[in-house]
Amino acid sequence: MAAQADLLLNQLVKRYGDGPQAPVAVNAIDLQVQAGHYCCLLGPSGCGKSTTLRMIAGHESVSEGDIVLGGRNITHLPASARGTAMMFQSYALFPHLSALDNVAFSLKMRGVSREERQAKAAELLERVSLSHLAARKPAEMSGGQQQRVALARALITEPRVLLLDEPLSALDPFLRARMRTELKGWQTTLDMTFVHVTHSQEEAMALADQVVVMNAGRIEQSGPPSEVFNRPLTEFVARFIGGHNVLPTPQGPVAVRTDKTRLSRTACADGSPGLSAVIEAIEYQGTHVLVFLIAGEGASALELTVMLSEAAWADQPWQRGETALVHWALADQHALKG
């Protein structure tokens, strides 16, 4: 594989159209992805994550700013000259070609001899444990096998960065979890930079060394998964990542993890902050129980979630419609911006 290289985005902008009223999909973002890291761009539909990936790949033009890979400005280079490779959500395999020929196709377009390109393709199919299916066409393979072919095809050009556009979204939940493990294993084995677009918080947390949360064309927060989860910077991140209650205080909004939030039927002797809420719904999740509550009424009503261990639930069960005191330790509060 090609040598590692840091990826830098500097004030990157994507604007559709001309003039001050032109829609902006990506709004002057700065980002550094360290060589050899697994980076997930995470956010809701329309936040700019896929547009950012396409600009890195060279499949979307850049309105302003720069893309630098390994110290080399690739902003306006054609996709084939960037040192990146793209693995699409649909895998985009040629249905009439075998796995071997699908993997070898890009080298064929570069004029590499048949013997050389097929030898390289066979080596990559061996690496992803598919050499025994080299003669099969995509329709004769499972979704997971097709994904491995798509990965091998992306790797044959020896890219410095592999770009993945929601590669697991079409898979069933069981296969998705298994393929997450395989993707992370391949990235570690290859010691290559991966940039992966997803709208799944679980997927980003499971895979990434660096999670980049995007919202409305901007980066809200970037950092290791544990940091983003435990110390969200903004209300948007706290709500989108999930697992937090966002609570108003005179000093501004704070986040408290749902598993650090507790329920009781009486006031807390330790004086910890709390508020009264009505239980709206209860979901049993096996290892834990989620209790959904509403505090207050009307426009000012506050939605809360409390995660209780199965043991805590068994010790003190609750019923829908009950009023409970929702409380938390001051030490578990985390201040948010804005």
Can you walk me through this structure?
The structure is a single chain. The chain has 338 residues and is of the alpha+beta class. The chain has two domains: 7-230, Rossmann fold (3-Layer(aba) Sandwich); 245-335, RNA polymerase II/Efflux pump adaptor protein, barrel-sandwich hybrid domain (OB fold (Dihydrolipoamide Acetyltransferase, E2P)), CATH 2.40.50.100. 27% of the residues lie in helices and 31% in strands. It is built from nine helices and 18 strands. The chain has helices at 49-57, 99-109, 114-127, 143-155, 173-190, 201-207, 225-230, 235-241, 310-315, and strands spanning 7-15, 24-33, 38-42, 64-69, 72-73, 84-87, 161-165, 193-198, 210-215, 218-223, 244-247, 254-257, 262-264, 274-284, 288-295, 302-309, 323-327, 334-335. The strands form four sheets. The protein has a six-stranded mixed sheet, sandwiched between helices. A hairpin with a 6-residue loop joins strand 11 and strand 12 (254-257). Helix 2 (99-109) crosses helix 3, helix 2 (99-109) runs parallel beside helix 4 (143-155) and helix 3 (114-127) crosses helix 4 (143-155). It is globular, with a radius of gyration of 24 Å. The chain starts with 6 loop residues before the first strand and ends with a strand. The mean pLDDT is 90.
Give a short summary of the structure.
The chain has 338 residues and is of the alpha+beta class. Helix content is 27%, strand content 31%. The strands form four sheets. Strands 6-7-8-3-9-10 form a six-stranded mixed β-sheet, with helices on both faces. A five-stranded antiparallel β-sheet has the order 13-17-14-15-16. It has a four-stranded antiparallel β-sheet with strand order 2-1-4-5, covered by helices on one side.
